[in-house]
Structure formats: C-alpha cells, structure tokens
Amino acid sequence: MVNSRIIKRYALALMKSADDVSVEQIYGDLAKVSSIIGASKDLKVLLRSPAIEYRKKQAIFQEIFKPIISAATLDFIMLLLEKKREIMFKEIIAAFKQLYNERHNIQTTHITSAAPLDNALQNQIAAAVEAKINKKIDAVFTVNPNLKGGIIITIGDITYDGSVRRQLELLYKQMTGKDMPENVRSAI
What we know:
By secondary structure, this protein is of the alpha+beta class. The chain has helices spanning 4-17, 20-39, 41-48, 54-65, 71-82, 89-103, 119-133, 164-176, 182-187; strands at residues 106-113, 136-143, 150-155, 158-163. Strand 3 and strand 4 (158-163) form a beta hairpin. Helix 2 packs across helix 3. The longest helix has 20 residues, at 20-39. The chain is elongated.
C-alpha cells in the first residue's frame, strides 16, 4: 500500500526546495520523465523490481535522464531511488503537479465528449470554462461514444452534464414522472 503522507512530504519538499524559476523547470522535467517512463515497459519493470539495487537504478536513470533534465530534478530522482521510494514515483509526480496547480491557480478539468474534438474546439471549450470559473485550467479531454452527443465537464467534484444521453433521461423523467429504467438507459 502506498502511503499518501510520504508522497505529499516528498512532493512538498521538492516544491519548497525550488525557487520560482526552477519550479517551472522541475515541472517540465517531471512531465518528460513521467512520459518516458510511461512509454517504456523496461523502465516500469526496473522501477518495480526490488531485486535490482538502487545504485544500478541510479546509474540507469542518470544515463537516460542527465542530458535532458535539470540537475535539481535528477538529484531528486536519485534521492527517491536511494530511499527506495521509486514505487511511489508516479504518485509523487501527481502530488507535485497538484501543488504546482494550486500555486499557479490552475484547476484540473475533465472534459468528456461523444466524439474526438479538434484542437480549435478544445481551445474554445477550455477558454469558456476558464472564463466561467476565473481560473486557468489543465484540461483532460476524453471520448465516450455512449454519450451520443454533447459534453460532460467535471471540475473538482462538480459535474456539468450537457450530453444528449442526459437530456434524453431528463426528457423521459419530465414526460413520465419517473427515472428512466436501466434497460431503456442502456439502449440509448
């Protein structure tokens, strides 16, 4: 089980150790590292393997990441490997990103559509949401063909459901006075 207090402590320590300029650099570095690890089955196995000693892991990470990330970020990764916290790496990056977003007044927003949206429409929706909540957003776009049309926007624990599916459910309830039965809901 992953200990959330430890994860928050490491993320907070990294945030506090950086000045305003290096926070931006570290944020970008962690995104690169996360992307590379996410795309490499071998690196995922390496991180999860208790049989490989931390010095070997450090050597591999230095070889891969030293040319592309800052010394501060690399030092932090070396510390995680030395303290055998590599199993928490993904969660520590997520916690750091959350702290970064809080510091910069950025709200993670999930936007689900029935079909893929082009970049122009994604930017238009993101701008409308930003204007509505008076914050920058980090938009995460996903596709769910079951919506039939429209979009669902989730900001924190608030969901705005503008999907055709939801509109049909509301119309059914308005006409019958009852919730739509599951067998009908699954048919739309």
